Amino acid sequence: MYKVKSGEILSKKIGAIVVGIFEDDKKPEGIIKEIDQKLDGAIVELLAEKQISASLKKVGKLHTLGKLETKAIYFVGLGKKCDLTFEKAREAFAVMTKELKKDLCSEVAIAFDSFLNVSESSNKFAKALAESIGLASYRTENYKETADTKTSLEKVFVYTSENEEAVEENLAIGYAYSTGTNLARTLVNTPANFMTPTDLAAKAKEIADRYGMEYSVLEREDMEKLGMGALLAVAKGSDQPPKMIVLKYRGKEKWENVLSFVGKGLTFDSGGISIKPALNMHEMKMDMGGAASVLGAMETIGALKPDANVMAVIPSTENLVNGSALKPGDVIKAMSGKTIEVRNTDAEGRLILADGVAYAKQLGADYIVDIATLTGAVIVALAGVSTGAVTNDEDFVEDVLVSAGEAGEYLWRLPNFEPYKEMLRTSDVADLNNSPGREGGSITAGLFIGEFVGDTPWVHLDIAGTGWTRKDSVFGPKGGTGAMVRTLATLARNF
Ligand code: BES
Ligand code: MN
Ligand code: ZN
Fold first, then answer.
1. For residue 222, what pLDDT band results from cuts at 50, 70 and 90?
2. Residue 13 lies in a domain
3. Which atom of ligand 1 is least distant from the CA of 269?
């Protein structure tokens, strides 16, 4: 909970106060000067002795020993005033949150003005603050007997002399971005036995109910009638019923100019008959990361209510092995009518997305962003740093890249030249080959989906590297990252 206040922060009785401190502040000013005076010059001394540092992302803590109403003051280093950007502020706030979380602070007051500079608006700082606190406070649920139920930062008081309404509004925006991202993280982190296609559909319905969106789902029989042979082919190997999940958010009076997000909802990827090695296979519960990011974005969109029409389409199934499973060499027919030779059953994401984008088009999508944990090759190309993009539309991809920049997420384009598309037409028996080889693997995988998109402006996002991390960071623990939630939500708000 965030509360914006305009009064005297130092007269507040509270466990902790946070102030920002710049390297340029040779002589303390403003709130820091006030604190320094109340502590008989201790701050100047501690700064000189480097016990408190103004270097970016350094956090110093000081007990006030009863000399102030607050028990402790946290000094957050912000570096040089002119260098502090939105991204750096996000990191500084995240480091701050980590420290407060470590100390189990449940309430904190923030001297917001001490963080401001002239190069970024106070609105951006307010957004960064709430977003970072939300992201950095995320905890992964576990199923241990001694589950960690500690909560921190339940109340955040933001003291400022800036326009209160504007600060409040931007805190709400940042909070909504973090909530959507955290929702996606939780969906990804949930074990696959608790996150089947049926469970994923139930989660989508919860979001629809929360925000008054339209929810619908196709069952196996519906898919058969519509000829979704690609999704059904993957689903054959699983006992779990497949789902095609649809959410519609109407932000305009008319259902036009529809922005559609199509997310890969592969709730567990064993590889199928082309089975994956056992090592790290457990991580393949994350293969519904695209669907999770779409649902996270819908959560954020539901909260922020942009005036755009947004439709989520999520093809969902498991990729397993049983006596009826899809086999290498099988030829299947997608909803669009194109035939596919399945050279590798582990290249299943592009199969279910082929029917996903075809269905989105049938439902009236005018713009399509598909998002998927699609290829190991994208990790080779871009590491876990940047999401990879493939497109058929120069203008639309520019919009998506700009939104990623605003959201503070890394996104990089891969080429879409004709010879890459030719690599897909290398089956002797079908229109397309689902696995044309290791070389350029992320490009051909993306362009495979593009074969089912036609002329609709389209951007494909491969989050196989960015959707999951094996390392804790200041923004959150290892596991699902909620990559591209903020980019998709920003795109919808800019639309
Ligand atoms: N879900 C995987 C991609 C993946 C790999 C996600 C690593 C996260 C981490 C996808 O279904 C897959 O198996 N792709 C194959 C494609 C290949 C068989 C053409 C791959 O990348 O190896
Ligand atoms: Mn696979
Ligand atoms: Zn997969």
1. very high
2. yes
3. 1
Is pLDDT at 106 greater than 90 in this prediction? yes
pLDDT band at 453 (very low <50, low <70, confident <90, very high): very high
Q: How far is the CA of 346 from the centre of ligand 1 (A)?
A: 7
Task: Give the ligand at the shortest distance from the Cα of 374.
Answer: 1
Q: Is residue 152 part of a domain?
A: no
The ligand 1 atom nearest the CA atom of 276: 13
Give the model's pLDDT for residue 27: 83
For residue 319, the ligand 1 atom closest to its alpha carbon is: 11
Strand stretches in 10-119, DSSP E: 16-21, 59-63, 72-77, 107-111
462 lines ligand 1 (CB under 6 A): no
Range 315-327 average pLDDT: 98
pTM of the model: 0.97
Percent of the chain as helix, strand, coil, to the nearest 5: 40, 20, 40
Q: Same domain for 209 and 122?
A: no
Q: Which residues contact 333 (CB under 8 A, 6 or more apart)?
A: 227, 229, 230, 339, 340
Q: Of 137, 164, 188, which one is at a domain's C-terminal end?
A: 137
Ligand 1: does its nearest atom lie under 6 Å from the Cβ of 464? yes
Residue where a domain stops, chosen among 103, 137, 171:
137
260/53 Cα distance (integer angstroms)? 47
By alpha-carbon position, which residue is closest to atom 17 of ligand 1?
A: 347
Q: What are phi and psi of 169, to 5 degrees?
A: -60, -40
Any idea what the CATH number is for the domain that residue 104 is in? 3.40.220.10
Rounded CA separation 487/357 (Å) = 20
Residue 6 domain-assigned (yes or no): yes
Q: Do 328 and 432 share a domain, yes or no? A: yes
> Quick one: average pLDDT of 387-404?
98
Specify whether 250 is located in the same domain as 381. Answer: yes
Q: How confident is the model at residue 188 (pLDDT cuts 50, 70, 90)?
A: very high
Cα 351 to averaged position of ligand 1 atoms, centre (Å): 12
Tokens 């056992």 -> residue:
278
- Rounded to the nearest whole angstrom, what is the distance from the C-alpha of residue 171 to the centroid of ligand 1? 38
What range defines the domain where residue 230 resides?
179-494
